[in-house]
Amino acid sequence: MRRYSVALVAAVMVFLVACGNESAGGNPAVNPSDSSNPTSPTPSVPPVSTPPGAAAAPVEQAKADLTKRLGIAETAVKVLGAEEVTWSDGSLGCPEPGMHYTQALVNGMRITLEADGKRYEYHSGGARPPFLCENPQAR
Q: Would you report the helix, strand and coil content of the chain in percent, each value rounded to 5?
């Protein structure tokens, strides 16, 4: 039985060494000794970047909602601000009494609009599109 265990351990070690050699230098695209490739390896997944105007879509959604609610022209709505925020929970900065929310940080936006001299605050986050927050939490 002891011989079997030693043989098994030896076989596993040979396998691990072979796997280790494959992952250590097996990338033919980037060879550190190749002087024709002076650049460092690039990640296989491109970095995530925000496309230009990505924040414009939520702002336009908020403006469209407000014009529909008030029955006014879109030109009568002024954008006072639009900022990316991290909400402290699932209420997205707009908690309702008696409701329970997930206790996790949520990336989203706060959009402040003005129409007829009155300010309106829209919040969004996660997969939820902008919505009118009538009683926003104090900042």
A: 30, 25, 45
Q: Give residue-wise pLDDT tens across range 22-60.
A: 444 444 444 444 444 444 344 444 443 445 556 689 999
Q: What strands lie across the sheet with 106-115, from one edge to the other?
A: 77-87, 106-115, 118-125, 128-132
Q: What are the structure tokens assigned to 50, written together?
A: 């925000």
Q: Classify 44 as helix, strand or coil.
A: coil
Domain-wise residue ranges, the chain = 56-132
By three-state DSSP, how is residue 83 classified? strand
Angle at 106 between CA 105 and CA 112, to 5 degrees: 125
Mean pLDDT of the region 95-116:
96
Q: CB 133: neighbour CB atoms within 10 A?
A: 19
